[in-house]
Amino acid sequence: MTTIKGGCLCGAVRYTANAEPITIRACWCRVCQYFATGNASLNLVFAREAVAVTGATTDYASLADSGSHMHRHFCPTCGVQVYSLVDERPQLIIMRIGTLDDPSLAAPRGTIWTKSAPPWALIDPALPRFEGQPPPPAPKPGPG
Ligand SMILES: [Zn+2]
Ligand SMILES: [Zn+2]
Q1: pTM
Q2: How many domains does the chain have?
Q3: Ligand found nearest the CA of 30
Q4: pLDDT digit string (tens) for 55-78?
Q5: Rounded distance from Cα 8 to ligand 1 centre (Å)
Q6: Minimal CA–CA distance to 141: which of 117, 109, 103, 118?
C-alpha cells in the first residue's frame, strides 16, 4: 500500500496518507498567493479518510474565490500551513506539497485559477489549465 508522510517544519504536526493522491495541482487563486509567498500554492488532493493527521493546528476560515468555505490548518508553532478542508467538499483533504517528507513525489498535474495569476507567473505550458475552479475530482485515484 502507498504510504506518503509529511508534516510541518517544526515537526509538531505530522500526517500519513495511505492512498495515492486524487490529483496534484498548482493554484493561483488570490488567496493562495498570500499563503504561498506570492506564488501558486502546490497541493495534493486526497480522499479525506486516506489521511491521518497528528498534532494540534490552528484553523483559519475564509471564503474562497470559488465560493467555497475553506479551513486552512496551520502549525501554531512554526506557522506552516499543512492542509486545508472545504465545507462544500468534506470527502477531500488538501495537503501542501512543501510539507511532504519527499516533495519530489508530487509533480503537479494541472494549474487552476490562472486568471488570478500575475503577468509574470510561470505556468507550465505542458499541463492542463483552468481559468477558475475546475469540477471537483472524483474521490478515487484518477488516471492523470
Ligand atoms: Zn510546526
Ligand atoms: Zn488557491
Answers
A1: 0.90
A2: 1
A3: 2
A4: 999 999 999 888 899 999 999 999
A5: 4
A6: 109
Kindly give the distance from the C-alpha atom of residue 1 to the centroid of ligand 1, in angstroms, as a whole number.
27
Tell me whether residue 138 is in a domain. Answer: no
Specify the residue for cell string 488567496: 31
* 101 alpha carbon – ligand 1 mean position (Å): 13
Asked if residue 127 is part of any domain, the answer here is no
Which grid coordinates are listed for 8? 510541518
Domain containing 107 — which CATH number? 2.170.150.70
Measured from the Cβ of residue 51, the count of other Cβ atoms closer than 10 Å reads 21
The rounded Å distance from CA 14 to ligand 2 centre is: 22
Domain span at residue 90 reads 4-115
- The number of the ligand nearest the C-alpha atom of 130 reads 2
Distance, CA of 19 to CA of 16 (rounded, Å): 9
